[in-house]
Amino acid sequence: MSAAPAADDWIVEASGLSKRFSGFAAVSDVDLQVRRHSIHALIGPNGAGKTTVFNLITKFLAPSAGRILYNGEDITGESPARVARRGIVRSFQISAIFPRMSVADNVRIALQRPLGTSFHFWKSQCTLDSLRQRVDELLDAVGLVDQREQPAAGLPYGRKRALEFATTLALQPELMLLDEPTSGLGHEDVDRIAELIRKVSANRTILMVEHNLSVVARLADTITVLARGRVLAEGPYDRISADPRVIEAYIGGADDQRA
């Protein structure tokens, strides 16, 4: 029998998390614990509250009730910028890149952000070249080093998502929040992005919303199922996929098994 997790095993601990909009409860009394150096998936039918939970953790929304701890410290009242400086970085469902800039320059700007020099285009070429090795390391990690000089707009959609991963990694996140990372991708790109998620999860924690249940089954150590803004079930995929409550939630609430 495995030992119970120690308190410092949890990178995120949310308790009693709730969010109401004009009387409508988008999230109600959610408890969520994310284990350090794991891949944790949030799934559930459309409208279950998954993106709202993301917005609460990253502080794009203030909770109506509840508390959020990150590395044991209360971040409930902190700003999105302060939370990002702690190492919580969110990758949005819609790719966020500079389309007219080269692939390499997109990553370089991300590397400069922690230095406060993202838009200092008048920096000397020597200063900018000092980032080249790290740019190429990140592009190599996501399989884009051969496209480093190509305008980002010319990349296929799946490769744009890979570039977004590189720019996210450039911010040195401790916790990556991925919002439907395989949304809109073809089968080949889904497999590529899934393997990329597994690769970049080394030495960091990933919390992801994902509608593709085969990807969730392949990657997630722990799955939290939300329904109508509440936690319906939690555990590994084998247990979750056999839970009658989860099966009923998907059959009754989603005609295409989108999570």
Task: Using brief descriptors, characterize the structure shown.
alpha/beta; 2 domains; Rossmann fold; 259 residues
How would you explain this protein's 3D organization?
- The chain is built from 10 helices and 10 strands.
- The chain is α/β, with parallel strands linked by helices and 259 residues long.
- The protein folds into 2 domains: 1-87 and 176-259, P-loop containing nucleotide triphosphate hydrolases (Rossmann fold); 97-172, no CATH class.
- A 6-stranded mixed beta sheet has the order 6-7-8-3-9-10, with helices on both faces. Strands 2-1-4-5 form a 4-stranded antiparallel beta sheet, covered by helices on one side.
- The longest helix is centred in the middle third of the chain and has 14 residues, at 157-170.
- The chain is globular and about 50 Å long.
- The two termini are 32 Å apart.
Shape annotation = globular
What can be said about the biggest beta sheet?
Answer: 6 strands, mixed
What fraction strand?
Answer: 15-25%
Instruction: Please tally the β strands and state the result.
Output: 10
Number of helices: 10
Tell me the name of the CATH homologous superfamily of the largest domain. P-loop containing nucleotide triphosphate hydrolases
Distance between the termini: 32 Å
CATH class of the largest domain equals Alpha Beta
Average pLDDT for all residues: 86
Helix percent reads 25-40%
Note the quaternary state here.
single chain
CATH architecture assignment of the largest domain = 3-Layer(aba) Sandwich
Q: What would you report as the Rg, rounded to the nearest angstrom?
A: 19 Å
The succession of helices and strands, N to C, reads: EEEHEEHEHHHHEHEHEEHH
- Low-pLDDT segments, ≥5 res: 117-122, 253-259
Structural class: alpha/beta
Strand numbers in spatial order across the main sheet: 6-7-8-3-9-10
Query: CATH topology of the largest domain, anyone?
Result: Rossmann fold
